[in-house]
Amino acid sequence: MSFYSIDQFIRENYPQYWGYESYPQDRCICIRKVSDEWGIFSNFALTPLVVDGVEFKSSEELFQLMKFKDGEILDRIRHNITREGKVCYQIKKTVKSYEKEHRRTDWGTMVIDAMKFCLQTKYEQSEEFRRKLEASRGHYIVEDQTSLPKRNPDAWGVKPCGTEFSGPNLLGRLLMELRDNGSLTYTLPPDALDLLDTLKQR
Questions:
Q1: What does the alpha-carbon distance between residue 19 and residue 33 come to, in Å, rounded to a whole number?
Q2: d(CA 7, CA 53)
Q3: pLDDT of 23-47, one tens digit each?
Q4: Helix, coil or strand: residue 50
Q5: Which letter does DSSP use for residue 3 in this model?
């Protein structure tokens, strides 16, 4: 199991989200590119979020930074600097360079709650996001990972399987849960948002 895979965390800590789901392709709204019609559903969509006075470019930036406590590491990531000292504007690659040595040791127990927090914050602050979610009613939401080279989808998405999309589809499932309930229930560790005070001081 890859260090970067969250599969083991889901199985151990979030069994309600473990396993594959299948959806008829003709009833699906697909998340592919940020520039697509439904691109705002992507965590990479540039929907600025402000949490306790700290601004984030996207829900993805907030989610990725929640993996760390160290102020220097948070500052370097915010300035797009990898562990090797290179400039990288792809936040997942930048974060990946620090994860093995600096990721929170309890990340596996909070990963889905962290994503729920990010999506809930986006829902509360972005009118366009709320409007698009409402417009998606009657359809399944899936993150289509057809373009990824891996044979199987990762924990967040799906791939085509006959006339269906199949996969864990965690992002789509959380979005549908948010759409259908109007909110997401989550529990974060007491220090989960200490990074905000840390970032204010940098």
A1: 25
A2: 33
A3: 999 999 999 999 999 999 999 999 9
A4: strand
A5: T
